[in-house]
Amino acid sequence: MLVSLNVLAAQEPPLPDTFAEHKIVMQISDPNPFKQTLVLNVAGNLVKYYGSTNMDLEIVAFGPGVRLMLEGNVNTPRIKALMATGVRFSACENTLTNFAKILGKKPKLIEGIDIVPAGAARIIQLNEAGYKTLKP
C-alpha cells in the first residue's frame, strides 16, 4: 500500500544542473495581488539585468501564493513569458491538496508549472544547492 501512495505523491523535480552565475529562488506565499505582481516584476527585472543564460531562477509558491499559478489567473501571459526565458515555476502539492478539500477538486495550474511535494522544503533544497532566496 505504501508503494502505491508514493506513486500518487508529487515527484520532486530534480535540482537544476546549472552553470549559471546567479542562482535565485523567489518565494510567493502571499494572497495579495500587489505582492504577486511584484514577484513577477522582480523576476522580469532580473532576467533583463542578468540575462537568461547568466541566471537560474525558480519561483516557488505555497499557501495562498499558489493562487498566482492557477489556470485563468490574470497574470498567466506574464508567467508564460517568463517561462519562455527559462524561469521555472513550482507550486506546493500540500497547498493544492488543501485547496481541493475546500473546492471539492484540485485546481488546475497554468501549463508548465511544476508541482513539488512541499513548497517550503523546495526552497530549502535550492538554498542547500547554493540558491539565494528573494521574497519581495
TrEMBL record:
Q: Which domain of life is it from?
A: Bacteria
Output the InterPro entries linked to this UniProt entry.
Answer: DsrEFH-like, Sulphur_relay_DsrE/F-like
Q: What is this protein called?
A: Sulfur reduction protein DsrE
